[in-house]
Structures
1.
Amino acid sequence: MSSNKKILVLPGDGIGTEVMSEVLNIMEWMSKNKSVSFDVSERLVGGAAFDREGNSISDATMQEALDSDAVLLGAVGGPQWDSVERDKRPEAALLRLRKEMDLFANLRPAIVFDALANSSSLKAELIKGLNILILRELTSGVYYGLPRGVEKIKDQEEKAIDTQSYTTSEIERIGKVGFDLAKKRSNKVTSVEKANVMETGMFWRKIITSLHKREFNDVELNHMYADNCAMQLVRYPKQFDVIVTDNLFGDILSDCAAMLTGSLGMLPSASLGSVDVSGKRPGMYEPVHGSAPDIAGQNKANPLAMIMSFAMMLRYSFDMLEDSTLIEKAVQNVLSKGLRTLDIKQDNEKAVSTKEMGAAVIEELNIVSGK
Ligand code: NAD
């Protein structure tokens, strides 16, 4: 089987370049052993792009992202760019990519590998085998709503305003992604809002309910208030399958769910847009962690979040379920054999380097695929 899927690789800054290099090795392994080749191009983004090209993402890179089948991003940022003007800062590149690719659906799986169940702050029996997906609306809601700003009311008194707003179509399109994803998992969606105290919450619930009735009544749906959801995530997280929620609540709840798994170095993510007329759905895949300036350049970073982000790309952008599962299986086996990077090791364990972890995954790919 061969594939000429066009992937734009944006390693970025700090550990972004180190963890991306391990994914490039896996792509090479795939082309040698699975006859799957990708059409890969690599460009600068973030602080690295600012230093060389004067902006955190150039127009040419943005255009290439739009022309690609999927974008794979490492991480951006670092203290050396903290004083750069806001619209040229490394993080501005992420916002531009999300906005221009219209990536409205952010998928954050929280999966606990058995071998790491003791790394969580929750009791192992609560989270062993956990596999939930937080689906966050990413391009609307209170982070984008207008009016926003600070205005003067009278002497010594100002008022800050943010506006939470959602339209029918914005809720429907994220709801559809949630129901579709649930169908490929445990068929259960929990829709989260504050219908008890917010107009947008009531509206969100109404739209999700009618979408469910109209198109997805074979999927189990329940509704939950966001504050209760935060409690339930730490009380009994295994009750959830797919949680679909707005931008603000998703921001908070996905970080909460992430911590159930123990380490930032283990968390992949995907951001998806709408399917266009040619059937293409734009997608950007990146680990949840940042550029980790404290360990950058030291060969200490955990590459597994980046590797699992690549596995998500195979699954959601290219429908390569078998290859995606193969990589996830290799990661699971490597952990079961006791390999740990600095961030996931217990006090009495020895840490392996980024490169050693990457090489161990490749070795495991050989074993799992019988090479
Ligand atoms: P961070 O995620 O970079 O690091 C937080 C802590 O987790 C650090 O101690 C780091 O060493 C550790 N860590 C993170 N990823 C790890 C990995 N793969 N393996 C081992 N340890 C890991 O967050 P931060 O320190 O708040 O931010 C650093 C920079 O990254 C900032 O400039 C920030 O703006 C940026 N950032 C970028 C993204 C992104 O590119 N999507 C996300 C978050 C933060």
2.
Amino acid sequence: MTPAPIITIALSKGRIYDDTLPLLAQAGLVPAIDPERSRKLIIPTNRPDVRLVIVRATDVPTYVQFGGADLGVAGKDVLDEHGGDGLYQPVDLDIARCRMVVAARSDFDYPAAVAQRRRLRAATKFERTAREHFAAKGLHVDLIKLYGSMELAPLTGLADVIVDLVDTGNTLKANNLVAVEEISLVSARLIVNPAALRLKRALLRPLIDTVAQAAATARARRLEAAHG
Ligand code: ATP
Ligand code: PRP
């Protein structure tokens, strides 16, 4: 007898995992181990045919694209950098919401720099996003690739501006930076390996639909709460 197929879902620890968990719970899926308290990278669930794998946020699209996972949850920021090749993106989960912005020191006159077409130095983890953004504005920019703590770059003279994610604005504020331009709104998406969807459709389709429904319900509740 052929063994039943296993569904593998790639998630990153932290906010993506925390925000995805309630959506999976609505689909009846509960992890057997808390990845924050374990060094295990393969996490079984209450369903014998579904497991989670814990990977870096930026690696989630790669795992799904090449079949290391059937499904995954990744931020639009990460998907834009990856390019989205070989990924089906059926659902905006509307979780891990934030904004991609250009930020600078509060004493840096960004509008004047843009108006004068000055050559800027921009530090970022999001090279593709930054390149496309400044190119669309017709600006020449020297990009400096960083892997974190982008806020430090303008404070140390490494760069004039950064391209980074902002949610509460607390990190910018704590470092005397201001957002000078919004590039896009960011939220996390469910991503699916198209071949896996064909081969394991009977298992995957209902799971995708239930998670999508759970995300829609959570969004409706949030909007209702926001508007009293
Ligand atoms: P990596 O480990 O690969 O470097 P990371 O440290 O950026 O990734 P997280 O900080 O867990 O990973 O962020 C995961 C996703 O959550 C991001 O890709 C983005 O879509 C979203 N995100 C990042 N920062 C925030 C924030 N401050 N508020 C809300 N969502 C955010
Ligand atoms: C993200 C982002 C900002 C911060 C913004 O960093 O790179 O530094 O969140 O959030 P805020 O506007 O609510 O302050 P994160 O917390 O993921 O840390 P890291 O990416 O540097 O690990």
